[in-house]
Specification:
Elements lengths: L2 E2 L7 H16 L7 H7 L2 E2 L3 H6 L3 H27 L4 E5 L16 E6 L1 H10 L6 E5 L17 E5 L8 H14 L3 E7 L2 H8 L20 H5 L7 E6 L14 H12 L4 E6 L1
Parallel strand pairs: 1-2, 3-4, 3-6, 4-5, 6-7
Antiparallel strand pairs: 7-9, 8-9
Length: 276
């Protein structure tokens, strides 16, 4: 039986990035492939007609490419970390129905998927926990979830499209708590500058009840802005769209590559890596 997701529900927000990954897998298989996303779509009872209609549009396809590039960037970072620490834990903070960590499963690592209870309820129905993969319902700001993470062999934390919804002070508090608890780890997440987050405010972020940019998390220069948060950390970043892939594949429209340059340069869309 398929898992039913209602339109205009909190769980509906899980479907949009998932469908974007499916579209990119079909359109740009040489650049991005997430077969698990394609399989997962088949397990969901949802009216995809609007997404199907929009999927041929220019704006939708570029947005889907953004989602795909972000996942590809984080895949690179996880694989790199696991090459050094094969038994490490991979923690997906604000996981939704994302399977980035599972796509890097080397058979030795442990995987933790964290999100709010409604999201984890959907995930448990579609992607249940196993011996090495654990779904945890929690509020990321309540650090009690730290106790669930096995850090014996190292930890890499990833987060995609999450911290735009957080207040800056809360991100700082979370990161400093992570530094105090996890002595050796990597944190990787996406961010953008104030200009970009203002644009997001007018679209999907507004739907989450965020109405003012004043206190919310954005970054232009990660190394200089975030390094002072930590006692000892190495902070670096790469362009979100072109930092890991030059997008010169023939399947990618030239206009998309041009827009990707704007996204990375003008809007400072980046993947930030913090080594603790």
């Amino acid at each position: 039986m398929k898992y039913h997701i209602e339109s205009n529900s909190v769980q509906e927000t899980l479907v949009i990035p998932l469908y974007g990954r499916k579209i990119c897998t079909e359109l740009y298989p040489n650049v991005f492939k997430d077969e698990k996303a394609v399989e997962l779509i088949e397990k969901i009872d949802y009216d995809f007609s609007v997404l199907e209609k929009n999927s041929s549009g220019f704006a939708y396809r570029f947005g889907a490419l953004e989602v795909a590039m972000r996942e590809g960037d984080l895949l690179f970072e996880i694989k790199d970390y696991l090459s050094l620490h094969p038994k490490a834990s991979v923690v997906n903070m604000g996981c939704g129905l994302d399977q980035t960590a599972e796509n890097c499963d080397n058979g030795q690592c442990k995987i933790y998927n964290l999100d709010l209870p409604d999201v984890i309820a959907a995930r448990n129905a579609l992607l249940p926990s196993t011996d090495r993969i654990k779904n945890i319902a929690c509020d990321l700001n309540d650090t009690a979830w730290f106790n669930e993470i096995d850090s014996e062999y190292g930890v890499i934390f990833i987060s995609a499209g999450v911290f735009y919804y957080f207040k800056r002070a809360d991100v700082k508090k979370l990161f400093t708590a992570m530094e105090a608890r996890f002595k050796s780890c990597r944190i990787c997440f996406d961010t953008a500058n104030k200009r970009a987050v203002k644009i997001m405010l007018k679209t999907f972020v507004k739907q989450a009840g965020v109405t003012s940019i004043k206190d919310y998390f954005y970054v232009s220069d990660p190394k200089n802005e975030l390094t002072p948060w930590f006692e000892k950390a190495k902070v670096s970043s790469r362009g979100y769209m072109l930092g890991y892939n030059d997008l010169k594949d023939k399947s990618i429209p030239k206009t998309f590559r041009f827009l990707s340059k704007i996204a990375d340069w003008f809007m400072k869309m980046q993947i930030v890596k913090i080594e603790l």
